[in-house]
What does this fold into?
Amino acid sequence: MRDTPYRDEVRSSVQRPYGFMSYGRNPWSPESDRPPNERLRRFHTRLTEHLVELTDLDAGIPAVYLDQRIPIGTDWQDELKLRLARCQVLVPVLAPRLFSSRWCELEWDCFERRQQLHRDRGTFIRSAVVPVLWAPLRPADIPRPYSQVQYAHQDFHPDYQRLGLLGLQNHGRHKVFNEVAYQLAQKIVEVAVSARLDPCEPHEFDSLFASANASQGEKHDV
It folds into this structure.
């Protein structure tokens, strides 16, 4: 039966954070001073609770990383590199602001470089990206590379695809919201267990960060 080996795999999972939540807060605009909004924090809390329940992850390890600080300073960037080098699954929050954020683009590029290391070694199994539909979007609204990853699943409530997690909360569909959050946690665990993405050294991302910092300087010089 499928259930028993799957539970065994989850119990023996590596002790690393499961998710890195990438959300659209552009660091080069006044929006960068704002922390994640209350609805996103609520989803993050719910997702984290489910992941702790579904896995053997140590309570001292954050199940899903969510940056809640202004993205400036060398120490902060070193921490971000470490998080991207250690997490098992990238969780981009699909919304218009994500698509226009250079910082989210950098997070995607770093995670893709990590997956490319597996391709180069011939050990790549599957993409370890689990997108979350935050705002109501049509497929045509989702640009590459996000459009290349499956974000809609048949088992999910149809209102999730119609409204996104933000719409479910705004329409008071809390039962469906909680159901979808649990299903997304299950999907993250499934992907983490099957992809088995090895951590890498944070310095693998140095050139990507250097390029992003250079672009930031160019924008400020305009």
Q: What stands out?
A: Residues 3-221 form one domain. The radius of gyration is 17 Å. DSSP finds eight helices and four strands in the chain.
